[in-house]
Design a protein that fits this description.
The chain has about 190 residues and is mainly alpha-helical. The chain has one domain. It is built from nine helices and no strands. It has helices at about 1-20, 30-50, 50-60, 60-65, 75-80, 90-110, 110-115, 120-145, 160-190. The longest helix is centred in the C-terminal third of the chain and has 29 residues, at about 160-190. It is globular. The protein starts with a helix and ends with a helix.
């Protein structure tokens, strides 16, 4: 329960940062550095905080996969592209990729008994999702370096929660899924 409270506090801080306009002053690659720094904090906390590690290890894998349903935010990228608030080079590939990853996550969750028997499906989805999120982060940096104003929507609410909260959680969750799958396959080999 403590970790959920910490997560809630982090979420509220992320909202405050985005709502205050503070993120608007961060120039590229600042948002990407923020994403990777927060991801590193999460992974370091997991590695060195035994109670946190035990809590995450006990967490149902479906809950970790369900986090990726938030990637339906890709539809909002497409909406903002239609309004001229995000560039095609970011919005369409990122939006379509995130929608695809979220859709596959939903299919996996709806078919969990089969996924439990055939973990390769989960592994393939995890690779796809990890590659997609890395490409989204890289493309956002590329677009922002070319024209910082083109990516302003990602630095205000509601999308300001992506670099300050959601994307670090998503990247860290991919690592956790990779680790769980590796541990499961390693146990089966014994």
């Amino acid at each position: 329960m403590m970790y959920l409270l910490i997560g809630l506090v982090w979420f509220l801080i992320a909202i405050a940062l985005a709502a205050s306009g503070a993120l608007q002053h961060i120039r590229p690659p600042g948002p990407q550095i923020l994403i990777f720094a927060l991801t590193a904090v999460l992974l370091i906390a997991w590695r060195f905080n035994r109670p946190l590690r035990a809590w995450l290890d006990a967490l149902d894998l479906r809950a970790i996969v369900a986090l990726h349903l938030t990637r339906f935010v890709g539809a909002y990228f497409l909406f903002l592209y239609g309004k001229g608030e995000l560039p095609f080079g970011f919005a369409v590939p990122a939006g379509c990729g995130d929608i695809l990853v979220a859709t596959i996550a939903a299919v996996l969750l709806l078919n969990w008994p089969a996924v439990a028997r055939h973990r390769r499906w989960l592994g393939v989805w995890n690779v796809l999702g990890f590659v997609d999120i890395m490409m989204v982060v890289a493309e956002a940096a590329k677009q922002a370096l070319t024209d910082p104003t083109s990516m302003a929507a990602l630095l205000r609410l509601p999308l300001g929660l992506l670099p300050t909260f959601l994307v670090p959680l998503i990247i860290a969750s991919h690592f956790l899924i990779f680790l769980r799958l590796y541990q499961e396959s390693h146990r089966q080999e014994r």
